[in-house]
Amino acid sequence: MTPAQSQLVRSVTERFGPKVAITDPEAIAPWLSDWRGRYHGITPALLSPGSTEEVAAIVQLAAAASVPLVPQGGNSGMVGGATPPADGSALLVSLRRMNRIRSLSPAGGLAVAEAGVILADLREAAEAQGRRFPLDLGARGSATVGGLVSTNAGGTQVLRFGTMRSLVAGVEAVLPDGSIHDGLSALKKDNRGYDLDQLLIGAEGTLGIVTAATLRLVPGATARAVAWVGLDSPASALTLLRQLEARTDSIESFEILPDETLALVLGHVPGLRPPLGSAHRWHVLIEAVVTDVEAESPLILLERLLAPALEDGLAGDAVIAASEAQAESFWRIRHSISEAERSAGPAVQHDISVPVDDMPRFMIEGGATAEARFPGTQAVAYGHLGDGNVHFHVRAPVGADRERWYAEDGPRITRLVHDMVAAAGGSISAEHGIGQMKRAELERLGPPSRIAALRAIKRALDPQGILNPGKLVALAPEPSRP
Ligand code: FAD
Ligand code: MLT
Ligand code: ZN
Questions:
Q1: pLDDT for res 295
Q2: Which domains does the chain have, with CATH numbers?
Q3: Whole-number Cα distances in Å, 2 to 65, 74, 90, 118
Q4: CA-CA distance, 219 to 335, in Å (whole number)?
Q5: Which ligand is closest in space to the CA of residue 391?
Q6: 257 vs 384: CA distance, rounded Å
Q7: Which member of 118, 219, 222, 314 lies 3.0 to 4.6 Å from 309 by CB, making a disulfide possible if both were Cys?
């Protein structure tokens, strides 16, 4: 621990007690690596404040002593954003103790939740009041409000409700100088210049530590239906989605996966069964939800809307879950993909978006190009087709030396995939953020005007670079790598 870090830890302990400054290496260890195990950091202390005032005091002390801080929520992020640097220079700030839902107003359709509130708990609390918080993802049992806000998370309901950005009505955060920005009042109209709340959403902890957020709730579901459809290609899947969208606005989720991915999940998670009795190259999971008791049952709606697709051969086969348990088992397949993929050996992951109508072409051509240029690899694309966002993983050839492949082929494959994305006018980070994983690629692909603007914002708000150093964007341009 450096003298400045020791002094900071001592001051925090004196002011707020030992539970706010943890230095026991065993207690800290679980929080030093990312979920995929690709990034590993070191820190001499994990600070665990219990209130916004404690966060503000910690940031003030850190700013005065120039000690960098890394904010962390559930540590479920996919880009190494919450992993501290490997040189031990930064302290971790965990928001997990700040886990109170300060208010939940079903009538107003708003909830004020502290940064450490876990997504599953928030969803449950809203449902208990007849409302829904309409954002869901596989890490719902660990991802926190602060992490979701700071990554502008997406997930499986973006099709109807948008990403976090459209679900956040206001943010409370501690800025890099230790001052508190209070945007929780959630004004419907507020044109006092730049929107600080929106700037903090997706900032990955580089501009402020989010301490709470006002979140939008939508009406509770009166009924839902979940269908599993087998078809021959992503193009057929997108045509099906367009047909559904033309006839109803009840479709909340439309998730695609190839047959290999289904097989991987079924082999990895005990107790799951294939939803269809027939074999198909591609599968989609569709969820329709109605919120009006008078509305047509979503089961009948989906039966009626899927029938023409089955008759004219657009869809090969389909089943609508006959019970909540069966619906949950379909979703369990979808939400287990990341875990199954993690167990499938070395792979490079890309979280990409292109214009929605171009995604079917990209999935097929992009996969074929990657496999042809890197013989023995297997490209797999799955995810949020209706958002023009898939997770495009390229697995190492069977028997490849893990470390060598990650060091040599991995970055070359990533460059190829990202170049194809850039050529298609897409984004190299659709929903997971930049973190440390994509920082060099963000700088490489720019455009320079965008990077310059990001850097100018970072410098203006955090001139010392004390919040989440090494993530998203550097204060100054870095020498380019060979
Ligand atoms: P962390 O991982 O702890 O942190 C993520 C980033 O936010 C870091 O940069 C961190 O510094 C910063 N941060 C955390 N808390 C704060 C705070 N209070 N203030 C400021 N900065 C903060 N993501 C999607 O978008 N869509 C998906 O469908 C999806 N599915 C997933 C499925 C699985 C199985 C897993 C493991 C992850 C998935 N993710 C998905 C990624 C992840 O869940 C999200 O990025 C989530 O928002 C991270 O929340 P967290 O609390 O775990 O944040
Ligand atoms: C998902 O949609 O499952 C995720 O965003 C996580 C992943 O990349 O697998
Ligand atoms: Zn996703």
A1: 84
A2: 3-94 (3.30.43.10), 101-219 (3.30.465.10), 223-337 (3.30.70.2190), 344-423 (3.30.70.2740)
A3: 11, 27, 10, 33
A4: 24
A5: 2
A6: 9
A7: 314
In Å, how far are 13, 22, 91 from 25, measured between CA atoms?
A: 17, 8, 13
Token pair listed for 111: 């909830």
Pocket test residue of 32, 34, 52, 151 for ligand 1, highest count of atoms within 8 A of CB: 151
Is the C-beta atom of 433 inside 6 A of ligand 2? no
| 138 CB near ligand 2 (under 6 Å) | yes
What CA–CA distance (Å, rounded) separates 192 from 420? 40
Distance (Å, whole) CA 136 – CA 56: 30
Return d(Cα 440, Cα 242) in angstroms, integer: 36
The secondary structure of 262-321, three-state, reads HHHHHHHCCCCCCCCCCCCCEEEEEEEEECCCCCCCHHHHHHHHHHHHHHCCCCCEEEEC
Cβ distance 210 to 183 under 8 Å? no
Looking at residue 294, its pLDDT comes to: 82
Q: Measure Cα distances from 417 to 64, 390, 428 in Å.
A: 43, 12, 9
Instruction: Give the side-chain half-sphere CA count within 13 A for 46.
Output: 23
Q: According to DSSP H, which parts of 22-170 are helical?
A: 25-28, 52-65, 119-128, 145-151, 158-161, 164-167
Residue 335 Cα to ligand 2 midpoint, Å, equals 8
Residue-level pLDDT at 480: 59
Length of the chain measured in residues: 482
pLDDT value, residue 479: 64
Pocket of ligand 1, candidates 70, 78, 201: which has the most ligand atoms within 8 Å of its Cβ, to mutate? 78
Q: Is the CB of 113 under 6 A from ligand 1?
A: no
Residue labelled with tokens 């949020």: 384
pLDDT averaged per 10 residues in sequence order, the chain, 482 residues = 96 95 96 96 98 98 97 98 97 98 96 98 97 97 98 97 97 98 94 95 98 97 96 98 96 97 95 94 97 89 96 97 96 96 93 98 98 97 97 96 95 98 98 97 95 97 97 83 50
Residues sharing a CB contact under 8 Å with residue 375, sequence separation 6 or more, in sequence order: 397
Determine which residue's CA is closest to atom 6 belonging to ligand 2. Answer: 338
| Nearest one of 305, 194, 191 to 245, comparing CA atoms | 305
